[in-house]
Design goal:
It is globular and about 75 Å long. Helix content is 1%, strand content 47%. It is an all-beta fold and 541 residues long. Strands 4, 25, 28, 30, 31, 32, 33, 34 and 41 form a 9-stranded antiparallel beta sheet that branches. Strands 24, 26, 27, 29, 35, 36, 37, 38 and 42 form a 9-stranded antiparallel beta sheet that branches. The chain folds into 2 domains: 305 residues, Glycosyl hydrolase domain, family 43 (Tachylectin-2, Chain A, 5 Propeller), CATH 2.115.10.20; 208 residues, Jelly Rolls (Sandwich), CATH 2.60.120. The longest helix is centred in the last third of the chain and has 4 residues. Pfam families: GH43_C2 (PF17851), Glyco_hydro_43 (PF04616). GO terms for molecular function: hydrolase activity, hydrolyzing O-glycosyl compounds. Belongs to the glycosyl hydrolase 43 family. This is Glycoside hydrolase family 43 protein. Keywords: Glycosidase, Hydrolase.
């Protein structure tokens, strides 16, 4: 079963959370006719803004990503957990509208965000050239009012020392005809005492404007806040009963970090909330799978406030009264028979263009031309997929003929430039082709020379990376069957929590993504080396 789809093999009328397992945060949910769509953040990974599709809110299939080339966004040089934040997907007047933020910084209270808008007549595109919007804050979202006007919301960033960096939710009119912002922005809502007010979504219902925001930060204090007003510009009254959804104070819950929600109404008038969650390996511990997408049922009586039962994220909720619509399961093995990478794959900081991802020259093989080192942020050569379960593996067969120690190809368990484990083929100083293992923990590299394996004379090498709860292991096959490297590596370094680094109260690094399993080729001398991967098999236990 796909890593992008939760296990829904139980009751046909229930939603099992998370519906998008692994790194799928900040969901924006949308219904167009009988079709539901989820757009999620992708940060430094291509394709940007992943889209999933459902007909019943239970079964979801990946449609790939919207940002497939540098025309839409150039991620060269993008920092870890920078890039594409919190997309917003809407549909109005026969067009899909996608707003996304490109955030460039963390340090000293600066974010350097830039917001963009693209449109398309179909969810599959083609998408327009991006419209450059403001850079005053991130988490931008469109609201299409009943009178035909369109408005852009976002958090309002304040860089000034001593000020609240989350200065509230601002709104400004967007003219669809001229594709420009018009008028002056104004602050709509300054949030609750919980603070860190961001992630706005605005809805018109039951004679009210309903403002949904994320508060409390993106970790354990996260929540979904609801406020309403009779007038678009406020004042907005906060729900007196507290947040619509949160897991704060409930470390017993399987789903933590509940927040950043958006609402959708079914054809029959039922309401649901899509939101992000995390599944820590221990109470309030590391979330190696990253921030995932879940869905909750919402009760919304006429004249009343929306309510999620219990106000906490449930593992299983009643599905809407819609026909069940499963999708074909993703094959476990990708034989690389297609002309393009499948939807399960992502590439780091550069799109999968033919100059380095080659599926044509050698049929049924993925040829990856080597790229930069692990810390290179312009042209790395990593093709990877999200880790969707605590126990899973990626297995491949590689053909690679390195000529020196600057040429490496293999499999990796990866989080970001500073946190990864890598088993690779390379050339030793004595001329042998060898398998080596290297780990990086917040940039501190650990080699394992005692585990070096002689692979001389072996044309095809099997490699496997295994997640086994908090442990990562590697296996290899030189033709005589699988052998395990005798070392247990720490999987929890591949988590949001481990990646975050605060120095003197300022974020020097952040962790917003999740663990990946991937195929990694490095050509540190720029000699034009490549590796051929015959297949890739992903399995979950």
């Amino acid at each position: 079963m796909s890593t992008d789809t939760a296990d829904v093999a139980t009751a046909a009328r229930s939603i099992r959370n998370p519906v998008l397992a692994g790194f799928h945060p900040d969901p924006s949910i949308l219904r167009v006719g009988d079709d539901f769509y989820l757009a999620t953040s992708t940060f430094e990974w291509y394709p940007g803004v992943r889209i999933h599709h459902s007909r019943d809110l239970v079964n979801w299939r990946p449609l790939g990503g919207v940002i497939t080339d540098r025309r839409l966004l150039d991620l060269r040089g993008c920092g870890d957990s920078n890039g594409v934040w919190a997309p917003d997907l809407t549909y109005h007047d026969g067009e899909f509208h996608l707003v996304y933020s490109d955030v460039a910084s963390f340090a000293s209270g600066y974010w350097d965000p830039q917001n963009f808008l693209v449109t398309a007549p179909d969810i599959a595109g083609p998408w327009s050239d991006p419209v450059k919007l403001h850079g005053r804050g991130f988490d931008a979202a469109l609201f299409h009012d009943d009178d035909g006007t369109t408005w852009l919301l976002s958090m309002s960033a304040d860089w000034r020392p001593g000020r609240d960096r989350f200065g509230g939710i601002e709104i400004q009119q967007y003219d669809r005809a001229s594709r420009t912002l018009v008028g002056r922005p104004r602050i709509l809502f300054t949030g609750t005492p919980v603070g860190v007010t961001e992630g706005p979504h605005l809805y018109r219902h039951d004679g009210w404007y309903w403002l949904i925001t994320a508060e409390g930060g993106t970790s354990w204090e996260h929540q979904v806040t609801v406020a309403r007003s009779r007038d678009l510009f406020g004042p907005y009254e906060v729900d007196p009963d507290g947040p619509l959804l949160t897991s704060v104070g409930r470390p017993d819950l399987r789903l933590q970090k509940a927040g950043h929600g958006s609402l959708v109404r079914t054809q029959d008038g039922e309401w649901y909330l899509a939101h992000l969650v995390g599944r820590p390996y221990s109470p309030l511990g590391s979330c190696v799978l990253g921030r995932e997408t879940a869905i909750q049922r919402v009760d919304w009586p006429a004249g009343g406030w929306p309510r999620v039962p219990g106000g906490v994220p449930a593992d299983e909720v009643a599905a809407p009264d819609l026909p069940t619509h499963p999708w074909p399961a993703e094959p476990a093995t990708d034989h690389f028979d297609d002309a393009e990478l499948g939807h399960c794959w992502s590439t780091l900081r550069r799109p999968a263009t033919a100059d380095w991802v080659d599926l044509r020259t050698r049929p049924s093989h993925l040829r990856i031309h080597g790229g930069q080192s692990p810390v290179g942020r312009q042209a790395p050569s990593l093709v990877a997929r999200r880790v969707g379960a605590t126990r899973c593996s990626l297995e491949t067969v590689v053909e690679f003929d390195p000529v020196d120690h600057r040429q490496l190809a293999g499999v990796t368990a990866y989080y970001n430039t500073l946190n990864w484990h890598h088993l690779y083929l390379t050339r030793a100083d004595d001329g042998r082709t060898v398998l080596e293992l290297l780990s990086s923990d917040n940039g501190r590299r650990t080699p394992y020379p005692e585990l070096t394996v002689d692979a001389s004379g072996v044309t095809r090498v099997g490699l496997r990376a295994v997640f086994d709860g908090p442990v990562v292991r590697f296996d290899y096959d030189l033709g005589a069957g699988w052998q395990r490297l005798p070392v247990d590596l720490d999987a929890t370094i591949l988590s949001d929590e481990h990646a975050a680094l605060i120095i003197d109260g300022e974020p020097a690094a952040w962790g917003f993504t999740g663990a990946f399993l991937g195929l990694w080729v490095q050509d540190l001398g720029g000699d034009g080396v490549y590796a051929d991967f015959d297949l890739a098999t992903y399995r979950e236990q």
